[in-house]
Request: fold
Amino acid sequence: MKRYTKYARPYLSAFLIGPCLMLTEVFGEIMLPKLMSLIINHGVANRDAGYIIRVGLVMALVGVVMAASGIGGAYFSSKASICFTSDLRQDLFAKVQQFSFQNIDDYSTGSLVTRLTNDIQQVQMVMMMCLRIALRAPGMLVGALIMAFTMNAKLAAIILVVIPILTLVIALIMKTAYPRFGIMQTKLDKMNSGIQEALTNVRVVKSFVREDFEKEKFGKANTDLQETSLKAMNIVIMTMPVMMLAMNITTVAVVWYGGNLIIGGSMQVGDLTAFTTYIVQILMSLMFLAMIFLQSSRAMASVKRIDEVMRTEIDLTDEKATAKDQRVTEGRVEFRDVAFSYEKDGGEPVLEHISFTAEPGQVIGIIGATGSGKTSLVQLIPRLYDTTEGEVLVDGVNVRDYSLKHLREGVGMVLQKNVLFSGTIEENLKWGDEDASMEEIRSMADAAQADGFVTSFVNGYDTDMGQGGVNVSGGQKQRLCIARALLKRPKILILDDSTSAVDTATEAKIRECFRTTLKDTTKFIIAQRIGSVEEADQILVLDDGHMIGMGTHQELLAGCEAYQEIYYSQREKEVSA
Reply:
C-alpha cells in the first residue's frame, strides 16, 4: 500500500479535516439522547417549561453544529477520495501508455478499460465511505457504549452478548464475498471487451448481417455477469436482514428489561428512552462497519487488479540505453542476422537470419506472402518489439541504445491498419508536427494527394473526422495517414501496405513525392503489388520469415523464382482484367 500514499499526500488536509468534522457530528449524536432524557426526567416530570426551553435551545445549537459538520465532512471526504482516484487513474493510464506491444498483448483492451473506469470507481466509493464512516461508526460505537454503561451497566451488558455474534457473522460473510467480487470483475472485463469489439466493428457486423449473432454473444456474456453478480450480491444482501434482526431483538430485550426497572423504580423513563437510542446507535454503527468491510472487500478485489497493471514489468524500456542523447540524423538502417519471435520464451520464430543494409535516402521495397513476416520486420526498426537474436542498427547505433523517444521521433510509420482519431482533419495531421503551420499542413497533404479531397469538404481541414475517421473512404484515410507521417519529416519512413486502397495513378504521384520531398529519407515500402516497389533501390523478398531474395527489380526478375512467380501472376491478372 506504500505506493498509494503519494496520492493522499497532496490532499492530506482534506483527508484529516473530513473525518474530524465527522467526529464532531458523532459527538452531537451522542449528546442529543442525553439532553432528551434530561428534558423528560426534569422538564416534563416537573412541568418546568423554562428548563425545557433552555435544554431545547442547547439541542438546537447542537443540531446546527452537527449539520455544518456533516456538510463539511462530506465535502472534504468527497474532495479527498475524488482527487486521490483521479491522480491514480492518471498514473494508471500513463503506465498503460508505457506498455510495449507485448505487455498490451497480455491484457485485453476491455480489461484495461474496466480497470481504468469501474475498478477505480470502486476504490473511490469505498474511500469516500471510509472517510465519512470509518471514524464515525467506531466513534459512535464507543461513545454510545460509554453512555449506555454510565446510565445502567446491567442493561448495557445485553449488547455485549450481541456484538461477538454479529462480528462472527460479518467475518463469515466477508470471507465468502471477497473471491466472488474478483470473479465478478473478470466477467465485467469479458463483457466490456465484447462491447468494444462489436461497436468498433459495427460496419463489418452489419455488412455480414451478423447482428443476431452479436446480440446472442452479448446476451451470454451479460447473463454470465448477471449470474456472477447475483452470487456475490446474495452474500451482501444477507448483511442488512441479519443486522436488523439483531437490532430488533436487542431493542425488545432492552425495552422489556428496562420497563421492569422503571416499574421497580430503579430507572427513569427518560433514561430508558435515551438508553434505547444508544442501543440503536451501537447497532447502527456495527451495521455501518459491516457495510465498510463488505465494500472494502470488493474494492480490494479492484485494488488487486489495479496493482497488477501498476506492477507490470515493462519489457521494453530504454533504461539501459547507452546513447540516450543520440538522435536519428541520417537514416541508415542495418539488420545483422536478426531473428524474432512474439513468444517471450522463444517460441516459433517469425523472422530468422535477416541481414541487409539500407543506405540513407534509399527506397527499400518488401514483398512476400501474407504471414511472411513483413510487418514484423519493420516494427523492429522503431523498436516496437525487440529482436530475439541479432541486432538492428540505425545510423550505426543499436536501436536498444537509443532513448525510445529520440528513436521514434526519427521514424515515421503509416501502419497497415490506418488509424485516425476523433477531431478535425487538421488536428489529426498535426500528430506529425503539432506546431505545423497551415501552409505546411496543406503542402504535405498535397504531396500525399490528400489536399484535393480535403478542400472539397464544406469545412475543409476543419472537417470533423468522427471516431476512427468513419466519414472518409479507405483510400482517403490512407492518404491522410501518409500526410501525417510526412509532416513529421522523419529520417526513416515506413509504409506498411499503406497505398493498397488508392488507384495506381494516385500511388504513382505519391511515389514521385517520395523521390522529391523525401529524397533524403530512407523509405521502407511493404506492398502486395510489385508495381508499388519495382523502382525501389532494393527489394527484399520474404517467405515464412526467411529472406529468399534481395536486389533490384531486374536482378530479382532474373534470379529469384519466388519473385518471378509473383510478378508474372500479377501481370496475368492485369492482362485478363
Summary: DSSP finds 20 helices and ten strands in the chain. Strands lie at 333-340, 351-358, 363-368, 389-394, 397-398, 411-414, 492-496, 522-526, 538-543, 546-551. The longest strand covers residues 333-340. The mean pLDDT is 82.
